[in-house]
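User: Show me a protein chain along with its predicted structure.
Assistant: Here is one chain, sequence first, then structure tokens.
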Amino acid sequence: MMLALKRWYAPALRQTVFKQMTILLRLKAVAALILVATTASARSESLLCPELQLDETYAEGSMKAMSKVVVGKGSWLFRSDFDLANSFGMPEPYPAEFARLVERLNQQGIALVMAVQPTRGLMHKDKVRVDEPYGFDPVLARQNMQNYLIQLSQAGAVVPNVMTLVDEPPEEEYFFRRDHHWTPAGARETAKIVAELVRKQPWYEDLPQRSYVTETGLILPKDGTMNTALKYVCGNNFGIQYVQGYQTAPADLDGADALFGNTEVPQLILVGTSNSAVREDERKNYNFQGFLQDYIGAEILNYALQGSGQDGSLIQYLQSPDYDPDNPPKAIIWELPVSYALDDPLIYRQLIPAVDGACDKADAVLQQQASFSAMQPEQRYEVLSNTAGDWRDLRGQAGYLDLRVSDSSLKEFYVITYYDNGERDKVWFRRPAIVDGGQYYLELSRDPDLAGANILSVFIEPTQSIETQIDVEVALCTG
């Protein structure tokens, strides 16, 4: 009897002990994870400093775009004003202005595809600390982004549904942990969605088709703009993040193509920010253009620029020799972070006439040339006059000014148009350094107060010094 009991009891005891040990080990593992997470959070906090919360820290220079650096879970950093924003979209009256731009492009035979990039907060909301969200509301932010896409679509643009990325984030990190750019993986996932819609467009079949191959490239090191800001303000940093890079090349690059390249003019144009730009440093290229070419199956001409703002690269393209209004591309793909609201009237007053192109001298109702030995800030220089024997009745006419400046370094100046009812239209051009100068378009003001007035003269007032001789040619086109 005792032997039978021992035979039953020993395995049962061993099983009970094993279960208890297993439970104990699991509890220790959970405790270790909690300790690691707590330690990581404490370490992250220890790298911060009080100056990060001061408004004056972000008052000047590149720090303006970093406001305010806050810690997320793990080793993530966010900008509270940008990455954790809730409000997006075009305020009135800009939806109508954007619709005018889309309509003008469509009239020229160009479709506008808007590749809108979500915020880092929306794509990595699981990395935002719930105890310190800095006002971030992912539900509200998602709804407002969705509304923005609806605005763009209702205006006539082709708008890929990038909300699928927000609702079901890819496994690989869409953004860098401490930088405002997307990773190559984020660029790839966006390109898939854009390409899927492009291939459904009626003009897609007219694109010259070409096959591409994408392969792994360099491992990209990323210090990160927020990490750099943290280092600048607090003297601390999280170190460098490494991600896989990619490169895309034509699958049929051999023979004459290998020597001279493809001679066909690309029918797709890419404009946008540093997320899409091709840079000399391959470690800063995220291959968005390459992924698009691979998934669409067509060559793309890339005009995206770093540091060009929301519309600088589109201005650069429309004013370049590559844009021919008489032989336009099939589509322009505009990569745009959702935080850009397209709410500057000068965007439309420049871009809409740029779609038409340079004012032909035969079509100009007024034109004039002027030369100045130098230009100084706050001094006004007349460049066009509608008085005396050259007087023309321009009341109620729509049109635009075509300004050509010999010194392309003049990029900051006012254009002041005076009217015979005592009113004036004063516009400040302040072109980013990376965008070419020399050519400027300005749509005449559509202000109702000027509808019945006639133009008297146009002046330039620099906000920078030009010490060399400068020639200005101005034409006024109407219609």
